[in-house]
Design a protein that fits this description.
Length: 132
């Protein structure tokens, strides 16, 4: 009888602990840029962000015909840029260079959802013109 009671209590504690862990992971998940009420913003706005990318992107020896690189990243609650990943790469180092440039971005203003600062997922397309 004591073993049965101990097993039930242990099961309840494990269920409670796993429920807490799931809630934390869901609350910590980033929101899509389009879904937040207050969108994160680069200092000076989007035109300044495009200028920042243009000034800092050093074109590698690219032999292709041009196209679009896509880089996804998270704007954290404090405005820092993390988890930079190349979603679409044109090759010849273009994706790595895009990742480098986005990684050195200054802090953004934070995004908000329902009055609370949240992490926001942003996907940036960078167009590369043909070199030849």
């Amino acid at each position: 009888m004591k073993r049965l009671l101990l097993s039930i209590v242990t099961l309840i504690i494990v269920q409670f602990a796993s429920a807490q862990a799931n809630t934390t992971m869901i609350d910590d998940a980033p929101y899509n840029y389009e879904d937040v009420e207050v969108r994160p913003e680069f200092p000076g706005g989007m035109n300044q962000f495009m200028d920042f990318i243009g000034k800092n992107f050093k074109m590698p020896d690219y032999e292709g015909y041009g196209g679009t690189i896509k880089v996804a990243f998270i704007i954290e609650i404090d405005g820092s840029v993390t988890n930079v990943k190349v979603v679409k790469d044109l090759g010849d180092g273009t994706g790595a260079e895009a990742k480098r440039v986005v990684s050195i971005s200054p802090r953004w203003s934070s995004g908000e959802f329902r009055g609370k600062k949240v992490r926001v997922l942003y996907e940036l397309p960078i167009k590369i013109a043909s070199q030849g």
